[in-house]
Amino acid sequence: MTVESVKPVTSDASELREPPLAGGGVPLLGHGWKLARDPLAFMAQLRDHGDVVRIRLGPKTVYAVTTPALTGELALSPDYIIAGPLWESLEGLLGKEGVATANGPLHRRQRRIIQPAFRLDAIPAYGPIMEEETRALVERWKGGGTIDCTSESFRIAVRVAARCLLRGQFMDERAERLCVALASVFQGMYHRMVVPLGPLYRLPLPANREFNRALADLHLLVDEIIAERRASGQKPDDLLTALLEAKDDNGDPIGEQEIHDQVVAILTPGSETIASTIMSLLLVLADHPEQSDKVCAEVREVTGGRPVAFDDVRRLTHTNNVVVEAMRLRPAVWILTRRAVTDTELGGCRIPAGADIVYSPYAIQRDPRSYERHLEFDPDRWHPERSKDIPKYAMRPFSVGNRKCPSDHFSMALLTLVTAVLADGFRFEQVTGSVGATRVGITLRPQRLLLKPVPR
Length: 456
Ligand code: HEM
Prior knowledge:
Blueprint: H1 32-37, H2 39-45, E1 52-57, E2 60-65, H3 68-76, E3 80-81, H4 85-94, H5 104-118, H6 127-142, E4 147-148, H7 149-166, H8 171-194, H9 206-232, H10 239-245, H11 256-287, H12 289-303, H13 317-329, E5 336-340, E6 344-346, E7 349-351, E8 356-359, H14 361-365, H15 384-387, H16 408-425, E9 426-430, E10 435-440, E11 444-448, E12 450-455
Parallel strand pairs: 2-8
Antiparallel strand pairs: 1-2, 3-5, 4-12, 5-8, 6-7, 9-12, 10-11
């Protein structure tokens, strides 16, 4: 057991408090209407009510935690599993047998299978693909004109994840289909999470039909990718081979459904989170030209003017800080949920078995108690001499514990490379029709970012 996972000594059960109820609830809907109307503001103001707060979503009581220390305790405690409204809404997409939604021994086995593909020492092998895809982006953008950052960011995110982890040479047409399908599916999932009106989503309405079509295409695409690999007879050293060769606890091959769910559970969160973060980074480069210039200067100092290479990434410390600061202010994953599997406690409050617990990395990472000038974009706050004052767990965009994102090294390498290459190549300006305001969905990202790239 690591030191991090040691739980504080629990007080006597009779001494535990009932957490306060957040204000502003209304009969029947409770706080649901506030959460649906302005989820980011709602989650952020909960800290004013206490460290652990009860909120009512319709008839259900949900517990929210609002301090960095308690989010760490929640994520590291064995008393909670992955479940709750976010995961239930994602199950139709991710299946019940994929790593993102499984719990217990199945989850541990799945992590063992996928982990090698994401280890720190596995990442340099993806360098050439990341470089190639980033340079392709620059070549396309050199042509001038307006860039639709949503489709462009999705495109590179899907292509890099699919090419690195599934080694497909087939990805061009499929990457486009994946992008289109994922965009509709994630939008529909979000509606189903915040407005959980089950039967309404079964009506033959155009939006429901589009959602069902996109979901079916996504599953079909994954089946095609798996079938093609099998038919090729090839076994490259990649994640798909690891999944196809994996054995269950009895030494038998894992089932078809599990392989399918695993591919979906890795590709889809990977694409959506990376795409959203690239959009946020592009907005930063456009809104803070001085930061863009600073990144460009660092890149040129490190490369001496040659094209940026994957190996440069570890020396691009300021660029890395820009990425971290962008992720602090607009974390792709802005809400996380867990479910208590036993009667337990958090921060001296009673949490009953079966309770859903929710927290918002967005609220935690913008808390003025953790960050000076908390709303200011200041990458230098991540200099070691300044960042040491930031409380533990106040910046964990990849989470901690057994559900921590397996792809933290992969993601940081890719995002730093993309930021470096783009700032080295262009200055960016928003054009008419561009809306940089935050769009809340399963992930956070700028609403409709349209940029003009001006070559340097
Ligand atoms: C900016 C990029 C990313 C961010 C911010 C991010 C964030 C996260 C977070 C916060 C979790 C934990 C969820 C929880 O605690 O409940 C998670 C889990 C996960 N992420 Fe990521 N992620 C990113 C990129 C990726 C990529 C590129 C992939 C795959 C290619 C990926 C695959 C996964 C998977 C499979 C899980 C589930 C892990 C488990 O439950 O054991 N993520 N991610």
